[in-house]
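TL;DR need structure tokens for one chain.
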Amino acid sequence: MTKIHSKLTEDIPSIKATKIGQVKNMVTKNPLLVAGSLLILLLIGFGGWQYQQNQELKNQVGQLTGDNGASEKEVKELVETVGKLVVLPENEQPTVATVTDPSKLEGQAFFTSAQTGDKVLIYATAKKAILYRPAQNKIIEVAPVKLDDVDGSEPQVAGSITEVTDKALVPINVQNASGKDGLAQRIAGRLKVLGFQSVTISDAPGGVSGTTSMNYGEQFKTIAPEINNVLNDQATTEIQIGAPDVTLILGSDFIE
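>> reply
TL;DR here they are.
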């Protein structure tokens, strides 16, 4: 037993030296092979990091997807303005949303510098998200985003918020900016008949307005068309990120 152990002990240095020598010879004789192996390892590592970043962004912009809230004219004007600052994807109309409460977006890297009033443009096909600040005419953030197609329908994003589809749970504020007495009360009455129970009325803070509009949080995107139907689809609509309710502003252009 002692002899065997001694023999192994004597052989270990020579074995180590042989293995090290083989590695050195491989590096010397095949530098491209070694470099290629290192490159593959680096790419694998970068791929894992990129996947993690993409997953985080998918969760961040999940709450932005859905129906295009802004009117076609508003989207066109916004795209023209932003297009002067950065090259935009061609032949694709983005989904547009407005940041109304940055505090609800805290902890999400894409919205770190977001402010109230900022616009978010989501290009599903081009897989790009843009955060734009109209007040300064400035691009705040641009990031890639991978959207998943679900049954060939509109692109959906992992981590999207829970939608509210129960009429009784949809808070609606009807504001009269038309200059017509009692208009808000009449529209509120129509909504309540249809099952919308949480309806309040008020005069519009900005006074008389010429345009009828509907602004709503992204959680109401499915039921918003039904509300606009009560207005005979006269309202221009816009998704407002973080908004807790649906706000109807009845302008002077509204026809009963």
